Amino acid sequence: MSKADLILEKKRHGEKIVAITAYDAPTARIEAEAGVDIILVGDSVGVNVLGYSHEREVTLADMAHHIAAVRRGAPEAYLMGDLPYATYDTPEMALASARLLRDAGADCVKFEGAQPGLVAALVSEGFDVCGHLGLESQHQDVKRRQGKTAAAAAKLYDDALAGDAAGQKFLVLELVPQELAGRITRAIKSATIGIGAGPQTDGQVLVVNDLAGVTTREFKHNRRYGQVSAALRDAVSAYANEVRNGAFPEAQHAFHMAEDERAAFEA
Ligand code: KIV
Ligand code: NA
Prior knowledge:
CATH architecture of the largest domain: Alpha-Beta Barrel
Distance between the termini: 71 Å
Strand order of the largest sheet: 1-2-3-4-5-6-7-8
Largest sheet: 8 strands, parallel, barrel
Helix content: 40-55%
Bound molecules: 3-methyl-2-oxobutanoic acid, sodium ion
Order of helices and strands: HEHEHHEHEHEHEHEEHHH
CATH topology of the largest domain: TIM Barrel
Strand content: 5-15%
């Protein structure tokens, strides 16, 4: 059974799927050790790690660079990578972009929007595909909830079924009402991975910076399980203080020349 099919088995057995983002090798290693099912190298790398102001600034080279790092940190993990903005405008572009991410180490490629034709093209070339509906950060300027009206929900529902029929294996549902997420989840074979989409999806995904408290902004969809930013600030401040007051380094942090070498050196 393929890695993706092993994860999809969880949907059939009613077991939750755990997904989380990673952007670097040490974080990916920790996540793999913690036993997550899916590591997503999202284009959220741009805002969370690269200091960009928008996901749209992320390039294929950025994605390949970070996917390769995550792969080195988690050699056995199931890795998903985002196709960045404007790199999948045609099936040919999508295939070329997906090959770059696969060469960097991705097992699965994800892209935003209802494009069953692209899903089919990628699947026919042997790619695992993850759809992404609801909030599409690449295509929507304001990060607001989606699918709130009956008409918008019906459109999202139809889009989800079309992607499923085209052969996608996973579907991220971002900031959609939980009723809609539940209905989609029950209607499709693909495993739904929710973020801000309630408890009825087959799995959940969060941005590691948000859940670990690297990010200091609050998001309604997030739960903060750690205080990494505060811990890092405390560590750096303590170091700076000790350098300035002479408490660091101590004898054990340094070494001496051998006596004869020192004498020869000083002669
Ligand atoms: O880029 C990302 O981190 C994502 C998740 C929010 C699903 O696409
Ligand atoms: Na993304």
